[in-house]
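Example (one chain per record):
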Amino acid sequence: MANDYYAVLGVARDASADEIKRAYRRLARELHPDVNDDPNTQERFKEVAAAYEVLSDPDKRQMFDMGADPRAPRGGGGPNQGAGFGFDFTDIMDAFFGGQQRGPRTRMRRGQDALVRVEISLQEAVFGSERDLQLETASRCPTCEGSCCAPGTAPAVCDICKGRGSVQVMQRSLLGQVMTARQCSACQGYGQTLPSPCPECSGEGRVLARRTVKVRIVAGVDTGTRIQMSQQAEAGPGGGPNGDLYVEIVVARHEIFERQGSDLHARLTVPMTSAALGTTVELETLDGLREVSLQPGTQSGQMVRIAGLGVPPLHGRGRGDIVVHIEVETPINLQGRQKELMQEIAMLRGEESVAPKLAPVVEPNKLFNKIKDVLTGR
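Predicted structure:
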């Protein structure tokens, strides 16, 4: 064998995986081109990287212990290679499946998407608004502009894989020795190394930063509505594009109005006299004061609509209504003249005594129609 990988790393043949890793890290810190610019150490570093590539992989290490070099060139002979079986299994796969092109992976990747929840008022949901969101997320490095390299430098082609991102490995099989491709451990499959990583982002191409994003809240949104903001989330590694930011709306509870679809519902309590005689009251709406007229004889449970002052449909036209639910307030603790007047009214209306008059909650014909609707699936 051309190289004794155990001797290269300075470990015994029965060394554990942790001992091999520690030895490689110690040598890499001394010999890596990023920390040692002596040209004489580059070949030594290549040998150390090759030794670690073999001894850190249980299959390759077993093959090496049996006398075969996993990093030997195609067709190279180990003592266990059978005659006529020194072929590359990749060639067979290429012949049957069209030879899929393989290459190094890129450092540039898309950033992850992000979800932010924003609470807004009912007023903002009805009329729309704009918000400034303060985000602390990954942003493109201002020093290297995502290149991952220190200013004035550039990536270098990996000396181990020659830019391919992978290395060929000889493995034993029933057919003999088979050549397979493995990710290059020196460049992590990128095909390039960073001789001078950016000092600000440590070669990541992005840094954690705080920035402001302006979001436009469209009129008609409701709780659960999500607004997609393209490429406003975190920046991708290696100068990759930003992910998308999703803003989920939460509409805060209003002290008066309750939203049901495009309508706003509110409850109005009026004195019995106003309900009996009729009146006009002013209501505070989201659009300002509006008058509501109550007809004489208004009953509890009646509804009065104020058209066009509700919520607009999302991405549509017009607005819903305000639905006012009337609740008639019966006076209590009548005293003196008040009580006399009420008794006089009762006498005039013939209501001194009330005869019991019970009625079903649901009229029979309506109940029958409801049962029929259920049975017919309407």
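Caption: The first strand starts at residue 114 and ends at 120.
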